[in-house]
Design goal:
elongated, 6% strand, 2 strands, 2 helices
Length: 72
């Protein structure tokens, strides 16, 4: 089965979907941290700096469990 190409996204749709993606990744990280699990997705900036550094909530832009975007 061959699927048709997805429709082109507007810039605002792309930004919205990327924000949702970032939120889901942050939620996954917070959930894994709470469960004491190893991270399944390590942020790119942490992989480049030190693969052995344990990630903390503040590395994901989480303060008092309030999520916010640190990107423009």
């Amino acid at each position: 089965m061959v699927l048709p190409a997805p429709p082109e996204l507007t810039e605002s749709e792309r930004k919205w979907l990327m924000a949702i993606r970032q939120t889901l990744i942050m939620q996954l990280g917070a959930t894994e941290e709470r469960l004491g699990m190893e991270r399944s997705i390590v942020p790119k900036r942490k992989r480049e700096v030190n693969n052995e550094t344990e990630m903390k909530a503040e590395d994901y832009g989480i303060i008092d469990r309030t999520y916010y975007s640190t990107e423009d």
